[in-house]
Amino acid sequence: EVQLVESGGGLVQPGGSLRLSCAASGFTFGRYDMSWVRQAPGKGPEWVSHIENAGGTTYYADSVKGRFTISRDNAKNTLYLQMNSLKPEDTAVYFCNADRLYWGRGIQVTVSS
């Protein structure tokens, strides 16, 4: 059974940091490009970041560039998103996905004072 399970979300003050993890199982993680997508309340999905399967190339939405860092550990079948300098507009449910084929259930990130 394919599973992607996000963790590490929560409530943080503006300017703070969080590190999201996405644990993968049931498929060959290292063969897939991985992405993070978020959805804020009342808004459509927004692509956040992408990392190629070998981990050498990364891409970021302009809204998070310079603040977020995507990474992966293929030996641990885990994807990460380090989020720094968080803003209230980063509040959303964050989803990880494998080549848009497999999706996690999402995890809430709330940035508020």
Topology:
Blueprint: E1 3-7, E2 10-12, E3 18-25, E4 34-39, E5 45-51, E6 58-60, E7 68-73, E8 78-83, E9 92-98, E10 102-103, E11 107-111
Biggest sheet layout: 7 strands, mixed
Please write the string of helix (H) and strand (E) elements: EEEEEEEEEEE
The overall average pLDDT, rounded, is 97
Structural class computed from helices and strand pairing: mainly beta
Poorly predicted spans: none
Task: Please characterize this protein's 3D structure.
The protein is mainly beta. 0% of the residues lie in helices and 51% in strands. The chain contains no helices and eleven strands. The strands form two sheets. Strands 2, 4, 5, 6, 9, 10 and 11 form a seven-stranded mixed beta sheet that branches. The protein has a four-stranded antiparallel beta sheet with strand order 1-3-8-7, with no helix packed on it. A hairpin with a 4-residue loop joins strand 7 and strand 8.
